[in-house]
Design brief:
Length: 333
């Protein structure tokens, strides 16, 4: 991606992605809705932008950007987040609603239909076709459609979603045309599909009992994929939902050096949770070790976090702690 090839909205999108939320809000609030829509459309189409290109596009912010060693990442989810956080729910919803024609054609086509109707319409389609269609929807919406499918079809569809990698754009184009015919609408360009992470996001939004049942059936067909989905259904930051009593038990089981590393990329909420459940002396030592901890590869930090998650699952399996999964009120004990 070269500077001279960028459109005005694309340059504005890179600027927005490079600014703190407050600054982005001040910028967008001065624009008309149609201008914001064009910028958010560009954000939703944008992948990774190099730091060098950032500095060229936002020369006025060069000093700030020069201090950043990484890059910025766009995508539809980022566009939705920015629109809501900077414009408010009502105006943000209006802008995002108009992004559909420039985003996933399938999502745009299906946005007006209830999950039950979508599931009923797709119920007799091949599982691979259903998986491709659902991979184009937001995870929560896809989960609702999965829950509305006949029970016997759910595991196979989830398996197919988890097994998806990249699909040629012409395949998605053809699928969009088929969905348009099925649901009687017209739409725009192609989008990319997910994999085990998409399946995990969907299963996190159904009840624990339902997700456990689907995963149990998946294990009989592909233990590897089922394991991959389970692993992505729980992150280190998700552990913040463990009740304090169980969280304190967990902290006693985790080596202090592992806890320090795991906190390196933890959310503010998770960090506060840890310090609220250790003694003042331990908290002081933990802060000192965090300050002394040098740069680490993200993969190294994630490996340590996975060890903590493995400890959590072991304690949950033994019935020592309760573990909340996703948005469900059910718990795994």
């Amino acid at each position: 991606m070269e500077l001279h090839n960028l459109t005005g909205p694309e340059k504005a999108a890179i600027l927005i992605l490079s600014l703190p939320t407050e600054a982005a809000s001040a910028f967008l609030s001065q624009l008309e809705d149609d201008e914001v829509e064009r910028i958010m459309t560009a954000v939703s189409h944008m992948g990774e932008v190099s730091a060098g290109l950032q500095r060229r596009v936002v020369a006025d912010f060069q000093k700030t950007l020069a201090e950043q060693s990484g890059s910025v990442v766009g995508g539809r989810e980022r566009a939705v987040e920015l629109a809501h956080r900077t414009l408010g729910d009502e105006r943000g919803d209006r802008i995002i609603a108009n992004l559909g024609r420039d985003g996933s054609g399938i999502e745009w086509t299906l946005q007006a239909f209830e999950p039950d109707f979508i599931a009923e319409t797709l119920a007799n389609e091949h599982a691979q076709t259903i998986a491709l269609i659902l991979s184009q929807l937001p995870a929560e919406r896809g989960a609702e459609v999965i829950a509305a499918l006949p029970e016997a079809r759910r595991p196979e569809v989830v398996l197919r979603i988890a097994d998806l990698d990249e699909v040629e754009s012409k395949v998605i184009d053809a699928l969009e045309e088929s969905v348009a015919e099925m649901f009687g609408d017209r739409f725009g360009a192609a989008a990319r599909v997910g994999g085990a992470n998409v399946a995990a996001l969907m299963l996190k939004r159904v009840s624990s009992a339902e997700s456990d049942r689907i995963l149990a059936l998946l294990e009989s067909e592909s233990a590897e994929i089922a394991k991959s989905i389970r692993g992505q259904m729980l992150t280190f930051n998700d552990l913040v939902d463990i009740p304090d009593r169980g969280f304190q038990i967990l902290l006693r089981e985790v080596a202090s050096e592992d806890l320090v590393v795991a906190l390196k990329t933890a959310s503010d909420e998770m960090t506060r949770k840890v310090f609220a459940n250790v003694s003042s002396r331990a908290g002081k030592q933990l802060r000192e070790e965090l300050e002394l901890l040098g740069p680490m590869k993200l993969s190294e930090v994630e490996a340590v976090q996975e060890r903590v998650i493995a400890t959590v699952r072991s304690l949950a399996d033994e019935g020592v702690i309760e573990l909340n999964l996703g948005d469900s009120d059910d718990v795994l004990v």
